[in-house]
Amino acid sequence: MQSKKKLIAGNWKMNGSLAANQTLLDAIVAGMADAQCDVAVAVPAPYLAQVQAQVSGSLIGVAAQDVSAHESGAYTGEVSASMLKEHGVRYVLVGHSERRQYHHESDADVAQKAQRALAAGITPIVCVGETLQEREAGETEAVVKRQLAAVIHLNGHCISEIVVAYEPVWAIGTGRTASPEQAQAVHAVLRTQLAAASEHADRIRLLYGGSMNAANAAQLLAQPDIDGGLVGGASLKAPDFLQIIHAAR
Ligand code: 13P
Known about the structure:
Strand order of the largest sheet: 1-2-3-4-5-6-7-8
Mean pLDDT: 96
Largest sheet: 8 strands, parallel, barrel
Distance between the termini: 13 Å
Radius of gyration: 17 Å
Strand content: 15-25%
Bound molecules: 1,3-dihydroxyacetonephosphate
Number of helices: 10
Order of helices and strands: EHEHEHEHHEHHEHEHEH
């Protein structure tokens, strides 16, 4: 299980500017020469072309933060998987809790988005995670399994091509990280669920996200079923993001 290359993905969320992106990426590219892991940055759609041009030739993969559940047509404001593919996008976040919460994305929507990404040859990073209320009610396992089950159900054996990110909602942007033991416990549940659905489940990378930072990354990444990180705030600061990258080996 530990033999796969870890993946550290930064999620910039709705942050950045042409100038700030260039400065940030220059610093990341310059500092990651000896990185042992895969690295990606999930950037706002208008910056995909800029970022793709700037990271080409480096080890950084470009990720989008969302994709339409539809293939094409009258869906104003949406961006399709094939459009992302044309921009060299390698990964796309689907089902981030901010999309589920603010844009009312259902488990079925998320599954459909994952399917569109896979069909276009883009790796979906499927985000799952419970709210604080759900954790306190003892529902963590049921919630993440329900969220992942929808994706498994629609995508069948293709799920061996996905990445899963466990992001407890209460840990996102709060500075309150899941302990390595809490995160590992949920990752083990997800691993078992994936193993029941695919004989190639051991190749699926399970990322942890939620206030991952330079100080706590190494401990989280040392857990047997944590294969990388999905990093929000700390991915906007080159020294912090680089420290996380170097903790992944
Ligand atoms: P923070 O690292 O800022 O908590 O964000 C996590 C996240 O939502 C990444 O997708």
